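Hmm, what's this shape?
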Amino acid sequence: MPRARRSLPVLAPTLIQDFEGHLHRVELAPATIRNYSADVRGFVRFLKEPLNGHTPTLPAEKDFTRYREHLIQATSQSPATINRRLQSLRVFGRFLQEKGFTAENPAQHLQLISNGHAASAPRVLDEDEIAQLVVAVRAGAARRLMRRDYAIIELMLQAGLRVNEVALLAKADIVPTANGLRLVVRGTAEHHFRQVPLNETLARALREYLQVRPALSNVSTLFVSQQGKPLSTRSIQRLVEGYAKAAQLADVSAYSLRHTCAKKLLDGNPPDVVAKWLGHKSLESLNKYR
């Protein structure tokens, strides 16, 4: 009989510490232990995010798979870095099995990626499908939510923002210029940001949303829930998936919208400019959009 899944008060500090102890006992290099531990902590933070900081249950195979997709589609990490993180999770899954937390290694089927990301590239929407998605947004929500959700959809379609970048946007990141609006997109590292010009479609969508966004003195994030709390990345993903389903579009996710934007940008702009707009450090990162 497999053990029942435990919740993460055990996992959070103590089980990760046990995992680090396990790595020391098998005599891995200190740098490897630091990397594996940091990778597992990143995985736990990912699991906590859609729960507003509450402790999730012990991760199952689907959680590892979902995190793999997140690393590939929602970050600009290199294939080598992603594969190292996946390898860390494989080791962690085996540790969970050996400790008796799971009957099987929940990460045993976690596949590494190729340098081209080919197997995981989301599909691109054509113009008709984009129109269907927009109609689904405009017809499927109350006025205030419609303006919020439409602005979110257009941010990914027109500016190619990652899901986590949309979630992190603040009102102050929308900057007026002599030529219209410009968006400041902040990275996870301190003092790291990029500036993205906004076309009229996106600028109008953001202005219309700001007109109905609740005035919340204690919340600086641009997009908020009906309860006045910042929208999480998972909430944004579910939002896009819900409208795609309403529009009867198969295999469309938030990542598909960024991918669609990138393909359009590459059709009419120099690769170095596109890489800068999308937040990629190298031109090689654009290969997954070709």
About this structure: Residues 79-98 form the longest helix (20 residues). The first strand starts at residue 174 and ends at 177.
